[in-house]
Amino acid sequence: MGKNAETALLKQEPYLVIDHVNKYFVQKKQRLNVLDDINFSMAKGEILCIVGASGCGKSTLLRAISGLDSNHGGQIIIDGKEVVAPSKTRGIVFQEHRLFPWLTVEQNVGYALTVIDKEEKKQLVQTYIELVGLKGFEKAYPKELSGGMSQRAGIARALVNKPEVLLLDEPFGALDAFTKIALQKELKRIQRKAGTTMVMVTHDIEEAVFLADHIIVLDSKPGRIKLELHVDLPVPRNRNSYEFLQVKKRIYEEFFQDEKLPEDYSI
Ligand SMILES: Nc1ncnc2c1ncn2[C@@H]1O[C@H](COP(=O)(O)OP(=O)(O)OP(=O)(O)O)[C@@H](O)[C@H]1O
Ligand SMILES: [Mg+2]
To answer: Could you tell me whether strands 73-78 and 197-202 are parallel, antiparallel, or unpaired per DSSP bridges?
Structure first.
């Protein structure tokens, strides 16, 4: 086999593999099965969205992928290696922004930066602050920021170490519709620029269809995969296009099976 053909084959290898993952918690002496035999894989550079109702196990699955919780059945493999602990190669943006209140935006963004050279560190922090649109707020403290700005700072902090995988847990869940739409567009732009592989949890179906190349829909109690689909709509995506609404409808119907939507459904 020629070198090029070999490289092409390698590229098709799944980058992240979730292999028979099971997880339970014990609550009031009762076993609560949260994840039940989850299996999927994704390619490098993809955006994968995990969609599901509150309590279905989305954050639990993301924590397992991050390595923050390795107490589960089955295996999670990223780039050929099993995930057993957190790593700097995986950046995380949590459900709440979790900035340090006593540090400024630039100090928060630079906090976990592994680069040692002072000048290089300063440059990198500035680059990522600008990338997320926070130029001018370098010296601001979290309490001086809006929710959307805090989330931007959280994204910059996760990106500054150039992670191979960015994990996002409902990063825009607490934001108003306008800020949310603006940040979704920016996240897509940043992802395309940096080529980062992203796994994002959301309960917002439209957000998933707007952002994702690949969607996993989780069922509740226990969390099982209801539906897996690939979204190959062109980018930038038009939320009002017929094709967009059809994908949205397909997912919507998984949750509300008794409420079939009419063919010409639109919002
Ligand atoms: N540390 C824990 N101990 C016991 N039970 C837990 C723990 N963490 C989560 N659970 C339970 O596991 C289930 C899934 O929780 P998880 O946080 O993964 O849901 P989620 O899909 O992220 O929900 P949401 O959309 O509300 O954030 C819930 O029933 C929750 O009560
Ligand atoms: Mg959650």
So the answer is: unpaired
Decide: 152 and 184 in contact? Cβ < 8 Å.
no
pLDDT in tens, 157-194: 998 988 999 999 999 988 889 888 998 998 998 898 88
Domains in the chain: boundaries: 13-89+164-180+197-267, 99-162
Query: How far, in Å, from the CA of 27 to the mean position of ligand 1?
Result: 11
Ligand 1 centroid, distance to 178 Cα (angstroms): 28
Q: Judge contact between 167 and 93, C-beta under 8 A.
A: yes
H/E element, 126: helix 118-131
Ligand 1, CB cutoff 6 Å, lining residues: 25, 27, 34, 52, 54-60, 203
Q: Domain 13-89+164-180+197-267: which CATH class?
A: alpha beta
Nearest-atom number in ligand 1 for the CA of 62 is 18
Residues with beta carbon < 5 A to ion ligand 2?
A: 59
- Quick: pLDDT tens for 194-250: 889 999 999 999 999 999 999 999 998 889 999 999 999 999 999 999 999 999 999
Q: And the tokens for 33?
A: 């099965």
- Residue entry with tokens 């306008």: 178
